[in-house]
Amino acid sequence: MSGRLGIGRVRALLAAALLLLPAAARAQFTLRSEVDARKVGLQDQIQLTLTVEGSGAPDEIPLPPLVNLDAVAGPFQSSQVSIVNGRMSQSRSLSYVLQPRAVGKAEVGAVHAGGQSAPAIAIEVVAGSVRSREPQRQDPFGRDPFGDPLEDFFGRRRGRAEAPRLLMEAQPSRTRLRVGEPLLLTYWLYTQTSVTDLQFKEAPQFAGFWVEDLERAQGPPSGEPATVEGQSYRRFPVLRKLLFPTKAGTLTLPASVFRIGLARTGFFDSGGSVERTTKPVTVAVEPLPDAPGFSGAVGRFRATASLDREAVPLGEAATLRFRVEGTGNLKWIDRGPELALPGAKVFPPQSKSDLRTTPSGIAGSRTWEFVVVPETSGVVEIRPLAFSYFDPAAGRIVTAETAPLALRVEGGTVAAGLAGAPVASAVARATGALPLRSDLGKPAAGVLSSRALIALSGLALLLHAGLWGAERLRGGSRGALHAASSRSVRGALRDLERAAREAMSKEQAASLVEKALDEAFGAIPDADESERARVVRALLDDVRFVRYAPQLGDYSDKLKDLAARAAEAVRRWA
Amino acid sequence: MRARGSLLLALFFAAASAGAGPADDRFRQANDLVRAGDYPRAVALYGELARSGSESATLYWNWAQAATARGAHGEALWALLRARELDPGDRAVVRDVERLRESLNLDPAEIAPEPLAVAGRFAKRFRLDLVAAALLVLSLLAHALARTRLRPGGAIGIAWGALVLGLAAAAVPGAASLARPTAAVVRRGAPLFDAASPSANPAGTLREGEVVPVLEASGDWFQVEDNAGARGWAHQADVKRLDRAPAAASQD
User: Fold this and answer.
1) Does ipTM exceed 0.90?
2) Minimal CA–CA distance to B133: which of A265, A458, A287?
3) What residue spans define the domains of chain B?
């Protein structure tokens, strides 16, 4: 049974949670003053507890001023350190036992410590005793061998003044509902003292219910103030269960017995445990109406359907997903819709769920996936799929329908035949659906073999080399003229520019021009009567004339002219 | 002289049409046999066409359909792989090769034991042989032009660029030619023998559809190496080569 309590798990969970009982504070350091009763008899005693939580609390907390009250015992000090989710919290409590002096008004004054304060508490004192005598808590070890040696002398225990005030309550969210509707059952712990442990002594049996555990809220447990029969408590939700009645009639949730561990409140107090019992809860469950096709779902739902593809080759499969989502008892519903498609084979569906339990029911979706294998080409029509459920708000059965779908089936492929070769062959034979190509087509175009390509590449390299070599040979046959021109035309032009621009002797300038001409054109054969040869020879004659002529005047203009003519010749013919 | 030329031209076209016609007719005949459900005869006819030189991706596509309908999935995969060899750009063939491979529970590597074969298909698909030849010729022309008196600007650069690209393009099919020939297993449970003889001892079995490199050929036998590294001899009726047309009719 899914709802059966894991006692060990509950125990650990509650122990961790209740260790934080005094830690209701949210600030770094809080101060709290509490009494266990606001109305007491003159013969009764009151327990005053001063609690500091968090870091930075002062070491000493003074006893607040008392009006019409005497402190007859205490202070009893207790400390608690808890580590929850890696966070450490610390609390310290001082307890006093107060005795009223006279009938009338009494008051515990405001407490001030470390910049924090707790308000004063008014108490009404009446004659006699208003407190019922609760049975003494059970001590499995009998009398404590290390108990208070002065107990007999003073006639009463000096540790815990009286039985702790603790209550357990099982609270249903409603007591009238339909079969399949969720019911939230909360177990509350009401307490006026620190609790260290809580466990089922007798685990409750939920006959006639489907039980789901609710996830525990994240973060530290937080209690809330509550008053029961005039007594102030803090109450904590210790357990929540979601129950779904599975049959109609009057169903009873039996009483549950809890064993609650108590924290030590003083040096002479050994703690211990007490038992508390919840009251039985009775629930009236009404039956569901019946209708053809009713799925048994109760709640609010929406149904959708989709195909994983719009078109599929013949012989291949498509997936049809039918999805129901909403809140209710969807976890119960296993049976998907009936699906039969003419012209296609439908395999039994697989069901997938994405559900989570919430206080209002089981929310999420359930999906049924049908594998559809078309057996003929064309269009496979998928009519709307229906999902009937009981809507508690409307009080009737409602049917949700999906939109119609169409699956286009195209001509098959080779792989299509593999889904089931014999079947596919039979279908192919019957329908002639094999996708044969009608045109033989041209024979595959031949390609150059790798040998041919290698030969072609080698031939190309040889021809390139031949062209390059022929050019070299041609240059050689033309003599040094070509070699020189290809060697350094730019250098010759630079020399000519220097000769025209820089201040140097006429011999140096003429020598530079002659050198440039020699570099650009080399030796000019005597037999060469081309224009280029004539121009170069004339330039060389003029250069040599200037170079060897006596220094009778300024030759700079002449040299500039020579350099310009030589540069023009180089650019033109070199 | 003119009449003689016309006569030769007419004879050429007549010969061409005479050669194409019977092949098309036999192809249609084979297709009709498939539609009639006579798959063995259809496959035999496809085989004859392939051996007669009328190989095409279409022929092997239809062969694959007939083989599939007959339940010979290994043979169908071989036919599709052969079709892919002939026309690597046929996307329908490539798609069905993948589907068939998955249906036969074969790993992609089990139908591609020779990575260089991919380069061969790439070269064939994009006709890198013709591209390489064109680039090499272009480089020669540009080089020759650069050596003339015209000396057009950039001719040398074009010559060098075309030469490098041409050699690179030629290298791809050249590298692909280094791949070993392969064959596909066309029969389920095809035995692998330790010698090229029917009386040899079986050394294992080959997986249907698996493509294996052919290490050696001897008569009707191929020495192959399966994907697990086991070497042995398989009969050509059980394994069909992917680099050439089937040598003999398939055994039905």
Assistant:
1) no
2) A458
3) 2-105, 118-176, 182-241
